[in-house]
């Protein structure tokens, strides 16, 4: 077993985008960051190399989190290598992929998130943290209703994932493990927003009209805060989109 004195943080889906930036920012806090990816090992290695070059500590760990056997393997490897996991960031998400079958969004955005959290819970010490990353379009799907064209199954499955995780809060509490949610408006410059801009330009223009979209750096900063600072169990951190909050308060 590697004797890592630092906090051990696993960020799922950290080979690009928000997960990669969150991994880099966690690296700057002095934690050992485990950079999970599904397919793009080289990109994940670049993220790790960047953290190490900046004086931090990181390693890659590939696993398709929608595959139960791969999740089991990942939990076993974390146990063998580090003996513990201090922070789990549930960032990996999907469903808009061209080859995704109709059940994939729920399998990934709900079932896989709960399975992973439950699998690594025995490795988490008191004071450990689980952070679920979501979008306002998903978090407020039942209040706000309207989502960009084609995004409804993803929004519903991510909200179902959040609800399923929230239903596990008593288990997290019993182990002294914190659980928080970070919900963001559309995040500027991400692949998903570029994809939505092609599919449904009006929906992105409407969000831009409500105010500048948050950046990847800003969103990742709040993910790191949610994974490190004291928070109420079940607390939601919001990033951007003040008008969404108004809608939810009605
Ligand atoms: N983009 C936005 O505007 C926005 C707004 C609010 C919230 N969010 C949330 O932020 C999170 C990250 O979004 P993003 O835009 O950065 O995503 P992204 O660019 O699509 O990146 C997805 C990442 O997840 C990985 N991944 C996909 N399926 C996976 C699987 N089955 N198992 C393991 N890893 C998997 C990918 O790995 P590979 O590269 O190896 O395939 C990649 O690293 C998501 O939870 C999303 O809902 C995004």
Task: Please provide a written account of the structure.
By secondary structure, this protein is an alpha/beta fold. It has a single domain, classed as Rossmann fold. Helices cover 50% and strands 15% of the residues. The chain contains twelve helices and seven strands. A seven-stranded parallel sheet has the order 3-2-1-4-5-6-7, sandwiched between helices. Helix 1 crosses helix 11. The longest helix has 17 residues. The chain is globular, with a radius of gyration of 17 Å. NADP nicotinamide-adenine-dinucleotide phosphate (NAP) binds next to helix 1, strand 2, strand 5 and helix 9.
Structural class by sheet pairing and helices: alpha/beta
Q: Could you describe the largest sheet, including whether it forms a barrel?
A: 7 strands, parallel
- Please provide the ordered H/E string of secondary-structure elements: EHEHEHEHEHHHHEHHHEH
- Gross morphology: globular
Bound molecules: NADP nicotinamide-adenine-dinucleotide phosphate
CATH architecture classification name: 3-Layer(aba) Sandwich
By DSSP (H or I, 4+ residues per run), the number of helices equals: 12
Average pLDDT score: 94
- Count of all domains: 1
Placed side by side, the strands forming the largest sheet appear as 3-2-1-4-5-6-7
Q: What is the radius of gyration?
A: 17 Å
Give the oligomeric state of the chains in this entry, treating copies of one chain as homo and distinct chains as hetero.
Answer: single chain
Briefly say what this structure is.
The chain has 250 residues and is an alpha/beta fold. The chain has helices at residues 17-28, 41-53, 68-82, 104-120, 136-139, 141-144, 152-166, 169-174, 191-199, 201-209, 216-228, 242-249, and strands spanning 8-11, 32-37, 57-62, 87-90, 129-135, 178-184, 236-239.
